[in-house]
Amino acid sequence: MLGTIPFPDGMGGSVYFCYPDQSGMAVWQLLGFVTNEKPSAIFKISGLKSGKGSQHPFGAMNLPQTPTVAQIGISVELLENLAQQTPVASAAVSSVDSFTEFTQKMLDNFYNFASSFAVTQAQMTPNPSEAFIPASVVLKWYENFQRRLTQNPLFWKT
Question: Does residue 78 contact residue 10 with C-beta atoms inside 8 Å?
Answer without folding.
Answer: yes
